[in-house]
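User: Hey, quick favor. My workstation is busy. Could you predict this chain's structure for me?
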Amino acid sequence: MGRTPADGKGRGTAAEAGRRSGREETEEERADRKWSDLLQELRVAQTGVQILFGFLLAVVFQPRFADLSTTDRNIYVVTVMLGSATAAALIGPVSYHRLLTGKRMKPQTVTWASGLTKLGLALLFCTMCSTLLLILRVALHNVVALWLVGAMALWFLVCWFVFPLWALAGNGGTPAGRPGQDPATDDDEGTGPGQGRG
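Assistant: No problem, here it is.
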């Protein structure tokens, strides 16, 4: 009931932080957990990007590449640039972590890396759509390719962005099990007490 004894001061602070975040953990433990979660997500995205980018780099060396129209070549160049930007954004968090390790900036690193990952997902969406457009234009040679790409882009948007936002809206916009919790301090992407913003 009263104050935490002087020798348990650190434990009291950790408990208070735990109550705010819904877990009994210090800011550093929370940052470690969030970083671990982010790494798992990045592994999935990076694998897909590496396969797609490898395919894109190989296309230019295929015999049929010389037969592509100017428009298709331009689409190819845009697609390769988007793929490069996607790879850079999704590999960027690894560089952040490596360069800032030991600098006591883990919470900030998690925040910045999370933002970069979101940017990478947006770029991956554009890369996928551009790749589909190139392939379907070569395969179909008609306007149906545009309709198919549009339909698939809509499906990507629903799977990647609409479903998560729908789940959040259905939960009243607050983290599960913590009514009244500020979403900005959610234990996944927000900056909690004392965390810096990148």
